[in-house]
Amino acid sequence: MTDDKANAAAASSPASAPRCWGLIPCAGVGLRAIAADSPAPELPKQYQNVAGQPMVMHTLAAMLAVERMHRVLLVVSAADGFWQERATDARLSIAACGGATRAETVSNGLQELMRMGASAEDWVLVHDAARCLVASEQVNALIDACLPDAVGGLLALKLPDTLKQQAAGAGPARVAQTVERSDKWLAQTPQMFRIAALQAALQAAGAAVTDEASAMELAGHSPRLVPGGAQNFKVTYPDDFALAEAVLLQRKACG
Ligand SMILES: Nc1ccn([C@@H]2O[C@H](COP(=O)(O)OP(=O)(O)OP(=O)(O)O)[C@@H](O)[C@H]2O)c(=O)n1
Ligand SMILES: C[C@](O)(CO)[C@H](O)COP(=O)(O)O
């Protein structure tokens, strides 16, 4: 069945109430966030302080502020000692089943959600621990767009700049051509899909896919693109910490 036909079928069938679960992959090492001239930090980027709190605490606060979020599962690496003796929220669970890639971490987390009582048709919203600026309003907008949809979708940002393709060859980078950008979006998170469909897609796609939507695309689906925002960037490079801190402090000052 095409996504369009499945949407029509979903619209004409009686309303059911699948739940929304949050899944936060938090098992990365943050290699690109380490400045070339700095020693490696003791903790990965998601645990470094940003605006007075470990980055992941901002991420969790935004996800847990969404009332329709049934529970949130944080997936950390087996070696993670951060959560020992730390107070947690009643709707938060932590599983030390992170994998070697983000896709493996998410796949292991989906299995854990099923053990926690999630059903195959429930929705999961996968959100990077390192996107600590997501606003609960954006998460709600994604849920509103995806709940009536047969497939699901992701927050994304229309490309704001002119897009250049690099020429092949050694030496300094040079432009090969300017690429049409009117149909290009930057993928963000959360990415929201049905749990069983996403698990099947990830298993078929393998560990190399860098987001959930890619796995669904490889399975033949066309996920919805829901406008996110420039502030929902992923803390990836050293400069990103200062930007994230400035935005969070400014939000705090504005109440
Ligand atoms: N094996 C992995 C790799 C990544 N992630 C998580 O996926 C999110 C997005 O990944 P990215 O920003 O690429 O994080 P890292 O893999 O940690 O960064 P880098 O590639 O720079 O090492 C992060 O919250 C990260 O913790 C994960 O849970 N398990
Ligand atoms: C999922 C993601 O945040 C979408 O932009 C991103 O792909 C994950 O991290 P990476 O930088 O691709 O490793």
UniProtKB/TrEMBL annotation:
Keyword hit for Transferase: yes
Site positions per UniProt: Transition state stabilizer: R32, K45
Native source organism of the sequence: Comamonas resistens
Protein name: 2-C-methyl-D-erythritol 4-phosphate cytidylyltransferase
Alphabetized InterPro entries for the sequence: IspD, IspD/TarI, IspD/TarI_cytidylyltransf_bact, ISPD_synthase_CS, Nucleotide-diphossugar_trans
Pathway in which this enzyme or protein is active: Isoprenoid biosynthesis; isopentenyl diphosphate biosynthesis via DXP pathway; isopentenyl diphosphate from 1-deoxy-D-xylulose 5-phosphate: step 2/6
SUPFAM superfamilies tied to this protein: Nucleotide-diphospho-sugar transferases
Enzyme Commission identifier(s): 2.7.7.60
Catalytic activity from the UniProt record: 2-C-methyl-D-erythritol 4-phosphate + CTP + H(+) = 4-CDP-2-C-methyl-D-erythritol + diphosphate
NCBIfam families in the record: ispD (TIGR00453)
